[in-house]
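Hi everyone,

Forwarding the result from last night's run.
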Amino acid sequence: MEFGTERVKRARYAIAAVFCVHGAVTGSFATRIPWIQDHASISAGQLGLALAFPAIGASVAMPVAGAITHRLGARNALRGLLALWTLALTLPSLAPNVWTLCAVLFVYGATAGMSDVAMNALGVEVENRLGKSIMSGLHGMWSLGALIGSAGGTLAAHLGSDARVHHLIAAVVLTALGLAACQGVLDLRSAPEEEAPPHFTLPPRSALIIGAVGFCAVFAEGASLDWSAVYLRDVLSTDPGIAAASTTAFALTMAIARLAGDKVVDRFGPVPTVRVGGVAATVGGLLVVFAPNVPLALTGFALIGLGVAVVVPLAFAAAGRSGPNPSQAIAGVATITYTSGLIAPSAIGAVADATSLVVSFGLVTVLAFGLVVGAQVLRGAGREAAPLEPAGK
């Protein structure tokens, strides 16, 4: 399906808005995890168990996104899946115990995963039609949304508001914004004779290698996003409002780095960019582990966000150029990285329950150093496509 240059440019802004809305849901949820933990009266280990269920839900549901898009078309599929995700924000704060929290987080993860696949697929399509790199910027908009959501959550936590009320208001607003943004995305539809994609297919070896690097970055991101507030509260004994600010600091550096990421990668190349980012994330992890006070810990979380920011967009780009079947490789990397982000919080909780949160973030630091070692596999992430020609040429 052909679209004119101006139409594709407008679609770029629309899909950027979708990324922003998606991120705002995550930020709104993450800042209220301490409230949800207290409301459900659960331990760190039980919270870690519950936070494994988004990963399970996403793993089950993500392969279905392709079939839904094939059946409904890209715009309708994204509209429906994004609305399910924004409305799912209301569920976790309603859970009265660990088992109901597990159940609602399964649904939360399933809707997150399906909408994530749909919006990234459209983002890659717009990038290909424009002929220039935009994926880092799109993920920057996701981080900006997470920053906005976490800022709202920080304010709500500081005021001592009920998370059920906070999340209901946020869900209504984000659903409306998401539906409006979806009106502008490309309305791509499969040809009538095109077969529906399989619900499950093994990713190629290239995707597994690239996905391993993405795994390290997203593990550090997911752990920091979901556990930074709990870490400051439990390890450094700070108040809930300041603890929630750690999520905001993390999201802020992620947003800034991703919004600037396309230009940085174009100038220095993907491998040096990821390698330097890995060093920054490693230093950040060490600051978190050894910080004697809140300001140093906040600096550590900010450096982790800065260091891992551009890795996932580059992993998608590298996967798309890694073999004869780009879509299969991208799907494989998406599954590995996204599942990593949802597994990370539960793994952090399990390690914390067995040892301490400090040891948990020692693991995050080790994985951050993996970016320095593995950056070489993203060598193929540079943008090489020709620019889009105006309609009619």
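Residues 98-130 form the longest helix (33 residues).

Cheers,
N.
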